[in-house]
Amino acid sequence: MRKILGFLLLALGSWQAAPAQTPPPAPAAKEEKKPPQPEEKTSQTKHTLRINGVEVGYTATAGTLLLKKEDGTPRASIFYIAYTRDGVTDLAARPLTFAFNGGPGSSSVWLHLGVLGPKRVLMDPEGNPLPPPYKLGDNEYSLLDATDLVFLDPVSTGYSRAVDEKNAKDFHGIAEDTKSVAEFIRLYTTRHARWTSPKFLAGESYGTTRAAALSGYLQEQVGLNLNGIMLISCVLNFGTLSFDPGNDLPYILYLPSYTATAWYHKKLPKDLQADRHKALEEAQQFARNEYTLALFKGDRLSGEERRQAVEKLARYTGLSPKYIEESNLRVPIHRFIKELLRGERRTVGRFDSRMEGIDANAAGATPDYDPSYAVVQGPYTATWNEYVRSDLKFESDLPYEILTGRVQPWNWGDFQNRYVNVAETLRRAMTENRYLKVFVANGYYDLATPFLATEYTFDHLGLDASLRDHVSMDFFDAGHMMYIRKESLEKVTRDLRQFLLAASSARGR
Length: 509
Description:
The protein is an alpha/beta fold. The protein folds into 2 domains: 42-239 and 378-504, Alpha/Beta hydrolase fold, catalytic domain (Rossmann fold), CATH 3.40.50.1820; 244-369, no CATH class. It contains 14 helices and 14 strands. The chain has helices spanning 2-17, 109-116, 174-191, 206-222, 249-264, 270-273, 276-297, 303-317, 321-326, 333-339, 371-390, 423-432, 451-459, 486-504; strands at 42-51, 54-68, 74-85, 96-100, 119-121, 136-138, 148-152, 161-162, 199-205, 228-234, 347-348, 356-357, 437-443, 471-476. The strands form 3 sheets. Strands 1, 2, 3, 4, 7, 8, 9, 10, 13 and 14 form a 10-stranded mixed beta sheet that branches. Strands 5-6 form a two-stranded antiparallel sheet. A two-stranded antiparallel sheet has the order 11-12. Helix 4 (206-222) packs across helix 12. The chain starts with a helix and ends in a 5-residue tail after the last helix.
């Protein structure tokens, strides 16, 4: 026992008497690798284009512009292409238009190479692709004679990127996107001395949502007032498009577009098939009146009222009464585009319901793909990638994100748990800036942003009576991208040119 105790005491004493050990130095903290700092770069080239018989000389600038913090730290690199007419001596009299597409997640390639820019993708007269390899041609309908053009790609689309990809989400949201695009517009306007030029926005699809949001932000936060906004295939109130339980509005607003589609594919009764104008007028009257009331009544609808509603819905949609009845008087878009031509084993397009697709399974509930996107994706992608390097001399090894999901999840911010609606922002902007004019282009065969939904939105804008004629609309025998059809391209560019000239020279009352 004594030996054990002595051993323990010896051990304890030895431990107590041991000299203090210097702890090993802590491993050096690894420095976080900072992303390389980008630099702005541009490529300028000179060109000519004949528009309405007049030769227009212009400078094309393809480049990047850095969005920075106030301390100079770069946050994002925005890719853009600007076209400015040569020989202009009075910039204050020369309009400037900023153009973008939607998505969220789309580059500006569609408006750029489809309608506004000096080059356009060559398609057949109805908007179908020609056999590959695809080609660009001069766009004799370009608006470059009437306005300078700046096409920009929001962060994560096109060649635009966040400096640190971990922070890309800081640009992926309705408020974040509005702020960053507004900052680009401010910087470009400042650097190129265009503050006193008439200024316009042109947006397509979600780009119209962005344009409406910008109308308020630019005015209130930047002090930049617009002369006009051009909305191509418009959506300002997402409640008009969202087929959710309890929201009957889209069923009403889509109906005339279903009628137009059924007419195009020859699925309407003979009297309606003989006259599209009559068919659309009848469908709109039914949608605004009897159909609205029928859906409002819900389970209170009588048997006879329900029978009449089923009969008329079948008449205006080309679908069978049985299908209408089984759908409880409500056919959402994804089911309509699958059902209309099911007997021929075909689907119709969402962006352009004139287009037909072929699914592997004709019995399925939803289509495999959108044939109206398939007809434009390849031609626009190929011609863009060739054009930017060969003609504009801008080189980048980044993939040009034509239409990407890398912006998801999108932050809807203040609109969480309710429908996005920027119509009030536009109303307020038009009220505070009484020179602001709006033009809206609608396609009859557009099942992404149906024309009656747009009319409904503007009918409920709440503009003062003195400002209502500041909104003008036109309608086209084509789809979401109405400009892919030659006749519609000619018509929409006439409308846009007239709108630009009138809004640039407008004087208040």
